[in-house]
Write a structure and sequence with these properties.
210 residues, 49% helix, six-stranded parallel β-sheet, alpha/beta, 10 helices
Amino acid sequence: MYVFDLDGTITDTNGVWTEVDREFLARRGLPHTREYRRTVERSIFPVAAQFTREYYGLTESAQDIMDEWQSLARRHYRELAPLKPGAEAFLRQCRGDGQPMALFTACRPALCEAVLERFGLRPLFGRVVFAEEIGLEKRDPRCFVELSRRIGAAPADCVLFDDSPDNCATAAQAGMDTVGVYDVYYEDRQAELRGVCRRYVRSLEELVRG
């Protein structure tokens, strides 16, 4: 079973969330610190919202924060954000080969479904699983164990395609094979990504047959 991440692997949307964070904090006159960024980038939406609330001492509820984030990101997913180079071609190649595929994402369900429908990719995936439904962050190996149960494939039979060094390391700990996919968001962590993955590609274009 091939398992694909969405943001930064299939869609060029990691930068969207940086802009969302900056705009959200700028509205309140708050700094976008490195500590904050490194924490929320690895968290599922509810955990990130609660952390944001506590870190900055905000009065809004976690649900209000999530709603604002989703509102800020909506247009990008529905209209603006492009696919990563080679993503559609590789996905359709895998489908043509009869390779079963699942999507596993920390993205909000409505935003994920919007971008998949926009590019006509939803039918390519047998399952779409959202990390917030599992209730565990992707940096927790139990998250990938539960994922494998939900998609009906043992971890050893799964190959994860992901741009995050943290996610790939955790999936490998859970027993999955991993392919690291370059994204500029993790530019300064590419050596780390190479080190935790069986294979590393600068672009999914490298996996498309000529």
